[in-house]
Specification:
Chains A, B, C: InterPro entries: Hyethyz_kinase, Ribokinase-like. Chains A, B, C: Keywords: ATP-binding, Kinase, Magnesium, Metal-binding, Nucleotide-binding, Thiamine biosynthesis, Transferase. Chains A, B, C: One of its GO terms (molecular function) is hydroxyethylthiazole kinase activity. The structure is a homotrimer of 244-residue chains. With 244 residues, chain A is of the alpha/beta class. Chain A has a single domain (4-242), classed as UDP-N-acetylmuramoyl-L-alanine:D-glutamate ligase (3-Layer(aba) Sandwich), CATH 3.40.1190. Helix content of chain A is 50%, strand content 17%. Chain A is built from ten helices and nine strands. Chain A has helices spanning 4-19, 32-41, 52-60, 74-90, 105-115, 126-129, 171-183, 189-210, 214-227, 230-236, and strands at 22-26, 45-47, 64-68, 94-97, 121-125, 139-143, 147-151, 154-158, 239-242. In chain A, helix 1 crosses helix 8. The longest helix of chain A has 22 residues, at 189-210. Chain A is globular, with a radius of gyration of 16 Å. Chains in contact: A-B, A-C, B-C. Chains A and B meet through helix 2, helix 3 and helix 9 of A and helix 5 and helix 9 of B.
Chain lengths: 244, 244, 244
């Protein structure tokens, strides 16, 4: 079964470049540009507003939604509530990134509550992940040295990646946005999330080969995402699969 | 007549580096740093606050104003109203960028209303442009593969540019800021907007020669804007002119 | 005495990489990512939220605090008040950066008021600095061609640096964040601030050697901060010291 993911991810990458889904991101105020540029590099079309007056219009036009909890205030909470409701009405898939919920109990409580509102995927690092209780059916992505994607007892582990990614603020948030982008073109959320993490990991490895530090890693990562083809995925994927 | 623009733009670029106008930008929350860095690369002096309590003080000290509608919320609307009033009182020119108004009817309505408050220039992509009715006298810039600058039946078309610019979030917003910067030093708004678009297009071409993707295009664009001289403009301008 | 700073800064840089302090930044909306990436490049751990509901939790977990006044609105003022109170309760040191207070009288008044609440260090450029009255005991850092760090009549002057830094928005804000990071690991605030400015100046010089303009300077600066060792500091420091 583990052979299936690289082929599938390769096809999905080609599909992304052809279909160009719109992805609306409720993003923190720190890394919106990196996330938008990363989506554009894969030929997805990002939008980013979080004003309550407008977010419903933007989500209604999007093919998928990312809800990232970084820099969370009252207005952003309101906007998230509206966005998730519109996504539910329109049947749009969404991914939840509870960024930094380990720093703030109210943020963790808000993340837990959002998990009951039907995200297709949760993406979190280990510290965030360990605080949350993931409902059955939600695909759970735990990122780290190895990224682990799990649903109903089945798991993929992706070993691709590069240590410099952890030194660039927002690479984790970008991986969450890529998950949302693949949800827009693949109804199997487990496959969409796994493909996103594999593609992101291979891009990080490519970037690491030319970067001389975290500063040059970031433009190299965007160049890699833009240059990446299905063949790169087939050649470089390092994954493991366990059936539950 | 079309020969006049490159010479004029070349002079204005030299004037920009000498005079260093202050440009206040009511910017979205996604790309303020790229816009500030792009203005600085031309030796203009950017400022970016959008808090209603402070924006009037900042606009009063600025030589020109950019109003960009990205990520528009109630506070930003209030700040925009104050900024436009102060600009009118002080006789400061301003440019309007109705970013993403095609995604949100209230944003389009707000853009239309702002067009009645006396901007010197409107800058919009085709989707945004087609939604709006531009009052007579406002210079209308429609960006795309070719940028088209029009006023009272006269038009310039600028063919300079590079496809990678479209993959970098905020390059359109930056071109709007450059228009505002040239408005600060040139009272003929048609010439100011045309010079800005020509200079930006030539810088994009320079950047495209060294970039290996959208990630490396962005620093290369800032380097090009900083390195660009009047001579580059004269050598590389590709424009057309029609008299109405 | 002036020989002591390079050795001390060299040791503190090694300590920073080993101890990895958490630094919470109340940042403007323009350059939070550069500041976070710069802290990460020195192996400090940044966080950036400014929502009043959450900032207390973040500051309580941080080892030091930066208060930057860029893009100041009512919510950010409230968050700053909470953050400074929590820092005082927990005995956490903090640095104040009154960014652009020379543009806005209410911002200057707010900065003056914050100076009475016990920051360890003030960092300002000349225009901002000249507006403020620095209480005795607060370390005063005035940045410019030469950076000058003063307390109780003693001063260090750091001549390291590079002119391209002034063309990149947020490098000044980043130097303020590095001061906060060194406050987290060095109780002598005069030494912490001096080490931060020296290390930042040497990194700017390293970056200037490979950059071809302001665009390529920024990733080169982050690469330099990540690559910098205590030995670089000892070899390249250009400082002067005056005892009061």
């Amino acid at each position: 079964m583990s052979a299936a993911l690289p082929e599938r991810a390769s096809d999905l990458l080609d599909g992304m470049r052809r279909r160009r889904p719109r992805v609306h991101c409720l993003m923190n105020g720190v890394v919106p540009k990196l996330v938008a540029d990363g989506l554009s590099a894969l030929d997805a079309i990002p939008s980013m507003t979080s004003s309550p007056e407008e977010v419903g219009h933007f989500v209604a036009r999007a093919d998928a939604l990312l809800v990232n909890l970084g820099t969370l205030d009252a207005q952003r909470r309101e906007a998230i509530g509206i966005a998730v409701s519109v996504a539910a009405e329109r049947g749009r898939p969404w991914a939840l990134d509870p960024a930094h919920c380990d720093y703030s109990p109210p943020r963790a409580a808000f993340a837990q509550q959002l998990l009951t509102r039907g995200p297709a995927v949760l993406r979190a690092n280990a510290a965030e992940y360990d605080l949350l209780s993931v409902p059955a059916g939600v695909v759970a992505v735990r990122t780290g040295k190895q990224d682990r994607i799990a649903q109903n007892g089945a798991t993929f582990s992706v070993a691709n990646g590069h240590p410099l990614a952890a030194m660039v603020t927002g690479t984790g948030c970008l991986s969450g946005a890529l998950i949302a982008a693949f949800l827009a073109i693949e109804t199997d959320a487990f496959m969409a999330a796994s493909a996103a993490m594999l593609i992101f990991g291979v891009a990080c490895e490519m970037a690491g080969k030319t970067a001389s530090g975290p500063g040059s890693f970031e433009p190299a990562l965007l160049d890699a995402l833009a240059a990446l083809s299905g063949d790169h995925i087939l050649q470089h994927a390092r994954i493991a699969h366990e059936q539950g």
